[in-house]
Amino acid sequence: MDEHKHISPNTISNEMLLQYTEGKLSDADTRMVEEAMANSVFVGDAAEGLYELENRDAINDIVGDLNKQLKTITQQQKKRLQKHKPLDINWIVIAILVLAIVAVGGYLAIHFLVKTK
After folding, report:
1. Which residues are CB-neighbours of 82 under 8 A, at least 6 positions away?
2. d(C-alpha 109, C-alpha 18), whole Å
3. Model confidence pLDDT, tens digit, residues 24-48
4. Domain range summary for the chain, segments of one domain joined by +
5. Which residues are CB-contacts of 3 (< 8 A; sequence separation ≥ 6)?
6. DSSP structural state of residue 77
7. Burial class of residue 74 in the structure, from the number of CB atoms within 10 Å of its CB (0-12 exposed, 13-18 middle, 19+ buried)
């Protein structure tokens, strides 16, 4: 967990990382990307993945597909969590109050019945 403490989405852009892998950055920008890679395993892994990617023209399509899949998965998880949502606390309080009133009413009814005999 400690290795991810330096991950920052604003460190470098996706385009800058792609240009780095293609060798199209200035020396200053190259140093900035290499510094980000040294500080973050996540950025280093992203660069490594881009190096291994054969069809670089399809990156936008791949990212779009991944985002779509991620959105679908998160929506499914949200629905699953909403299905198993615990009872609202208001209903629990109301149920306890009703039971208390019934219990007190029952006690009083029994008490007065016993007293009248």
Report:
1. none
2. 81
3. 899 999 999 899 888 888 888 888 8
4. 1-53, 58-85, 86-117
5. 41
6. H
7. exposed
Q: How many other C-beta atoms lie within 10 A of the C-beta of residue 16?
A: 16
Taking the model in full, what pTM does it have? 0.47
Q: What is the pLDDT of residue 11?
A: 65
Give me 52's structure tokens: 């291994």
Residue type, 28: A
CB 9 within 8 A of CB 43: no
Residue 42, classified by CB atoms within 10 Å of its CB into exposed (0-12), middle (13-18) or buried (19+), is middle
Contact criterion met (CB below 8 Å) for 43 and 6:
no
What's the length of the chain? 117
Nearest CA among 4, 9, 1, 13 for reference residue 39? 4
